[in-house]
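User: My collaborator sent over this chain with a note saying "see what the structure looks like." That's all I know about it. Can you take a look?
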Amino acid sequence: MTTRLQRKRADVLQGGVTALSVAGTLLGLSLTLTTRLHRHLVWPSAVITAATIAGAGYVAVPVHITPEGAIESLAEGDNRSAKHQYTEAISAYTRAIEADPQYAVAYEHRAIAQAVQASPQRDSMVMYFSASTPTALRASIRDMEKARALGSESLSTLVHLGYANESIGRFTEAEPPLRRAITLFPSLPLPWMDLALSLLGQGRQQEAERALDEGIRKLVARPSAVERRELFATMRSAFFEFADRYPGRRQGAETLISRLVREEGRQMMPDAAGSSRGGVTDFALSQKTYALQIKLRYANFAPRTRVAWLVYYRAAPDDDWVQRPDMIRYEMAVKAEGKAVLPVNDTACPTAGEYRAEFYLDGRKVAETRLERTGPPVALGADVVMTRRNDPIGGLSYCAPSSWAVSAPYSGAADLSSADSRTRISLRALPLTQPPATPAARVRLTKKVADRLAEQFAGGRVTERIPVDPDDRTQIVRRFRLTGDLVAGVTVQVGTDNVLRTMTVVGPDGDRSVLTEISESVAIGNVA
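Assistant: Without extra context I'll predict from the sequence alone. Here is the result:
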């Protein structure tokens, strides 16, 4: 960029010399002509001379050249951020700023790293996050304001200024940079959706709804499924946290959340029907070792009703609420009444924290409950430390003992092995380019894959677990007894996100309780 600027100034200088020559010629020629013609040549020469002097002033302004060390430090910071090493990234960006205090990009990148470092979503989100600490956000705002003062009007600068100000309650200050982002980047959904939160915070409900609708319209046109899911979840988290922080404005925030649930549900399950009919009772969230489970009874559902199970989480009362993309599930009810059970993807290893579960009929919330967990399950033993591993692009999320070996041959695949190599778990996630068109076709595909995986085992009893509807068998679990003391299991599911996920487990029968709990914690993330 600096070289181009220098060339441009050189061209201006050369053009100015030529223009001065022309001006001198015109002026000399004017002296040989009559007074009437003399006036027509003097004025052009004066204009050319004035323009040339102005151009010379432009050329005389010194070119700012970013030192090589600053560029190298910025590159190191970006590399560290990509590896989620945010402390090291912030240090690298700081060195870049020290080497060049006018390096706008370094301020911008440090601002984002500061906010992400303090976010509970730093290891689970790919593109967006909605939670951080006030201290980190204020430091982030200072850096972004410095970047903007140095001339940066990038999308990240403008939107991050809006988001950070909203997060600390400065809704009026958040609006101008977001409107500027909309002007510069009119096709992107994020500025519109953040603007909705700014307007909501200012009490401008109808404007907030219109801004969110415009953001959703742009969002559903985005080509990346990861981007769509994360942005839907990010905005639900932001509005949910707003409702928790400002109880007097809860109704307005819940209206916007309902819009997000309804529109994502239409994208995920276009064949289902939206319906206001039906009700839910006995809605409960319970703990089963590492797994969570939602149970309910439903009645008076219209045929093919689109439903959504939604879970928010926070580790401590002072933390922001987070609704991760893998903690929402859309389904289609095929019966008018019955019972339903859903295993829920847990978000922490160990599983301490507070959970809020909600149930929606299309865009109407009909039930909610909460659960507080104080620590990890004890059946695994105090010496077993679980670690969450996340592959959001590949569609896998799971907890596994820290002592286990983990191999990820490619995105969407993971192979786990215990320290003694006797217990092994293999996970696979495959996006379906041509997903099953009907529930029956989904059942056939699920059984076909389960039969193929079962070929590696012999004998054993077969069970089937259906999380929601007995008539829509989208998950199959089969267990086998092998030679000696080994047992095995196969789980196959086609999710509403049209991803085929499989899990194969082999381990000693004597450790069945431990194996069951580990496989459950893995399966929850695997089939979410």
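A starting point for your reply to your collaborator: The first helix runs from residue 2 to 30.
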